[in-house]
Amino acid sequence: MADWTDQIPPAARAYIAGRRLDEVECIVSDIAGVARGKAMPASKFAKQATFFLPNSIFLQTITGDWADNPAGAFTEPDMIMVPDFSTASAAPWTADVTLQVIHDAVDGEGRPVPVSPRNVLRRVVALYEAEGWRPIIAPEMEFYFVARNTDPNMPVVPPMGRTGRRAAAKQAYSMSAVDEYGKVIDDIYDFAEAQGFEIDGILQEGGAGQVEINLAHGDPVKLADEIFYFKRLIREAALRHDCFATFMAKPIEGEPGSAMHIHHSVVDMATGTNIFSAEDGGESPAFLHFIAGMQAHLPAAVALLAPYVNSYRRYVPDFAAPINLEWGRDNRTTGLRVPISDPAARRVENRLAGMDCNPYLGLAASLACGFLGLKEARMPRPECTGDAYMGEDELPLNLGDALDLLDEDAALREILGDEFCNVYQSVKRNEYKEFLQVISPWEREHLLLNV
Q: What is the dotted CATH code of the domain comprising 2-112?
């Protein structure tokens, strides 16, 4: 055990220092971003270099069913799971002393399994690096604290705060609103510290019980790992205080949706400079090409940024979510926003992604669109200087439409990998088909006796 614990990050070493490590959770992200894997005694993990999981975990839908295998026979061959010790992280909510370790999925010859979401993101990052570029991202995570909802037939409602009242809406940036569930926030900070994660800030968003956590900018794979971990961390903190944390795109009717805004910049690996800024400090052609690539390819990428039927309820005018792909400087009504910054920090914020997306796939899709823009040297449409909500809708209206657009964008599919895209579409079309079998309360209320 001493051999492998020497390779883990300082925060993980500090967490187990002077204590007996009981268990190691060996995990990998499935298509939905759910942690799959095995837990084993630490003594066994120390002796076992790899373990196996069937590749069918990437064909499982969010409902637990199995999608058709686009490759043909459903034989469930094993993948080899290789630990990435740099991801070792505490699980501070457990009763015993436990570490989590993210694993990479490879085949019998050591090649990355192309349908594993972490491998998809690595594939996109490698394309940047082959051009001498290093992509930098900074994610913003929005989510809701809600009252326990044990009956899916009942609407989701905000949680009770410390005042004994339900959390209030329309209190963006209110410190008092954050204090209403301060004990949950305290546990989030404590868990994050134990896991070695840096939180850039926590603030109240516009929805009732809606919170935003910002992470410092950095490497896309490392930050995707952290978001993957954070979703579990936040859920566990909420459960300690008799409420749920949800990352659904639109959990409460009449409230804003939850996004995962993604800030992008690209650094020249040779010089360390931001390629979005010219020598005189102005905007470079690469900056405009990146935006143009997003305008051209994001419609097809929406299937990954908005992966569920509920995701499309976010894209409603005047609910703090974009409805098109306009771009603008310091304009929060646009889908692509350029924040105020100095030349070294010039970046593009993609506001389309929902917090319900798999972080590996959301970041991969967004970076892929920008990469295609850099390679295609397109120019964007003129900047939107007014209210983009007054413009035309240009995003797919539902998951089925989004999957059709992904199917048609050959350039984006090549970047992400055709094999992955085929599996992803099979899973999502299965989920969409299942949803269409459900009759909603709206249909019973308005159609049962009126049509």
A: 3.10.20.70
